[in-house]
């Protein structure tokens, strides 16, 4: 059978199968949305499998899992609390976080939300990427990240995730790509003490020393700490304390350092070990009241209460 005949048979089988969503069989690439949001979306937002997802506040259960957010690391500074204790601070900017895709167990086998951050021009994206955004009916995004969630924490496509998704005083886990250091020796990479600086040591002051045994086993074990490429790896800093948020500028101040250089993307989610109080967190996210002006909101600072300020700053 020729290739043309096989193509014709495949087309006939496609047309003779059961009812399908009436997508066009041939369509040139364009900036128009592939799906008419008014024709296929459900009340409050749908995910394509008949599930209705409503954008409304809910009650967070102890086993509920909220979505995370994507932030840009702006740099580090220092702040002083009302007791005069100095707190090292990293400033993070949540740049236009939006839900760009909803994944469910029925279709993808998992409950998850894909979050997009930033903006990007169409000429800087591939055609499959542009098609993905057009099909979901969301603006073109610079960075995408999928966060697993529970079923009760699903949000409709297009929902905005602001800095008020987090609460001052809670703990979060921050994931990012560490700064690349290139090829480094054992002393810098692993903290080895090196060899003697005198007493006959020649050209081996920063050497790591022996790396194996004798004839048995006669090899260097895998995973041995040796010189090599340092940094440029994914790292998660756990239990980072949220000191302050600024809803007007969508900024977050967190205590201590987070992975990555200035301008890099980091991923923020609720801490796994130091879980926040579920009664204080907006669930599944913060929904701004109608008529609220974000530019008029004042920054929110963590309330330390009766906690020793020096214990909080450690």
TrEMBL record:
It comes from Phoenix dactylifera (Date palm). PANTHER family: 50S RIBOSOMAL PROTEIN L3 (PTHR11229), LARGE RIBOSOMAL SUBUNIT PROTEIN UL3M (PTHR11229:SF8). Belongs to the universal ribosomal protein uL3 family. It is found in: Mitochondrion. Gene3D superfamilies: 3.30.160.810, Translation factors. This is Large ribosomal subunit protein uL3m. Keywords: Mitochondrion, Ribonucleoprotein, Ribosomal protein, Transit peptide. NCBIfam families: L3_bact. GO terms for molecular function: structural constituent of ribosome. Signal peptide: none annotated. It holds the Pfam family Ribosomal_L3.
